[in-house]
Write a structure and sequence with these properties.
31% of the residues lie in helices and 21% in strands. By secondary structure, it is α+β, with helices and mostly antiparallel strands. The strands form five sheets. Strands 9-10-13-11-14-17 form a six-stranded mixed β-sheet, with helices on both faces. Strands 2-3-1-4 form a four-stranded antiparallel β-sheet, with no helix packed on it. A hairpin with a 3-residue loop joins strand 6 and strand 7. Helix 9 packs across helix 13. The longest helix has 19 residues. The structure holds 2-acetamido-2-deoxy-beta-D-glucopyranose (3 copies) and zinc ion (ZN). The site of one 2-acetamido-2-deoxy-beta-D-glucopyranose has 7 residues, from strand 14. One 2-acetamido-2-deoxy-beta-D-glucopyranose binds next to strand 14.
Length: 467
Amino acid sequence: MIVPAFGLLLVTPFDSALFNYSCLSSSFYGNYNDGGIINSVLLPEQSCFDSWSSQTLAQSASISVATQEIQQLVWLEQEAVDIQLLTETRSFVNEFDSFLQRISHPQVELENQAILKQDLVYEILYRTRTAALLGVTSDTARTIDTLLPCFWKSTILPSLPVKFRDVDASSTGYVKHVLETLKPDPIVASIVDTISIPQMKNDIRYLSGEDSASPIISRHSFSEGALTAAHWLKDRVEETGATCELWPFLTGFAPNVICRYGSVVSSNSTVLISAHYDSRGSFGSTRAPGADDDGSGTISILAIARTIARKGVKFHSNVELVAFAGEEQGLRGSRAYSRHLREQDANLTMVIQADMLAYRKPGEPLQMGMPESIGTPEVTQLVVDLAAIYSPELTVGTSPACCSDHQSFIEQGFPATQVFERNGPIADPMYHNSGDLSSREGYDFEQVKAISKVQFAALLHVAGFEL
Ligand SMILES: *[C@@H]1O[C@H](CO)[C@@H](O)[C@H](O)[C@H]1NC(C)=O
Ligand SMILES: *[C@@H]1O[C@H](CO)[C@@H](O)[C@H](O)[C@H]1NC(C)=O
Ligand SMILES: *[C@@H]1O[C@H](CO)[C@@H](O)[C@H](O)[C@H]1NC(C)=O
Ligand SMILES: [Zn+2]
């Protein structure tokens, strides 16, 4: 149980001044996106709320009271998608109502063959056109992502309050230094240019199951295919000289795949680049090839690993290449791992998450979209500057598509950003669809390579290296 009956819930636009109230900051359950606005969820005591409610900030808070004990809170949000993808039938009211029907009626066959048996227990605590906060049972929370309309995503809130941490000047200091002293490096250019598109094509066909020799049907976090993919990724990256570990974080979920290259000089810092290898299909289908979301980010990480080996790159900082699981259920794998790194007091100098790199709307140029709302400005700027140097073929802009695994690191006070396939909202018609394959119109390996070059250049510049 995380909310008692009659417990108070606040949803309020994020403002660091909230944390000046110690009774509020000790009831903070994280930040969540609602149509580009970042909201904080808090579960304060009545007395705390009363003392705060006269503040100006309190005027924009949405307040609700749980009518019954709540086992789990789940945040639902509509992703920023291109208007063309939102047809009449996908109006919020219709989609959301049919979704509520699905979670309230048993006998719904899920991808993993489980049947929802429990009676309806949900409560709507906050609802706008683009987001909702629901109280549900623990069982519903586990499977809710498989019942969502396709442009919606869900995040299970943590069961305990989380500590708010700003990404402060001490943690962004090193990236800032790299940014201020940045010069084009012809050796970096010669390394990143050799990322291999034919290799990426083979890799994605295995991960998506398009290769007839691949046993993978789905990489949904609870699927057999996700475990197959995890072992395969571990083996492939280990072949490049890294040490990899399958890192379990929650029962029933496939593990994170965490690969490390040690520094060849004495160093206490780590640079981390990542993607999520889990996927989602369409409602009612067991197939979840996820070639774009996020097979494309996963093959970019793998392509970087393969190039590290081919070129004999040795780093002057510790480097981690990570493929997360549980992203589609609300950043589960990365939340666990970033919390672990914080507990270890890791000196994480930079994180870049690659989530959806491949889709290019016909007629549009090769693009790279940087996050509008969730990203550390210094890291985002470094990535933009590196793109101009190493991938001038990219048109760089911003995207409202947000909230991938980099958010977990920002929540822990680590400097992080994301790279995305488009300037503007999601336009991939196969987003969260069983048709998300690599052999289709718009899936562009040149764009995956161009963005991968930028991630790799950031890694080389920030970690430092020798050949
Ligand atoms: C919150 O505290 C910080 C210092 O910790 C201060 O700079 C800021 O002005 C305070 N904000 C409000 C709204 O009280
Ligand atoms: C980490 O290394 C830097 C030099 O690269 C040094 O200034 C710093 O004190 C070291 N920190 C720790 C905790 O050892
Ligand atoms: C973290 O690593 C960077 C880069 O090596 C270094 O400059 C900085 O001093 C380190 N910080 C700490 C707290 O050790
Ligand atoms: Zn994704």
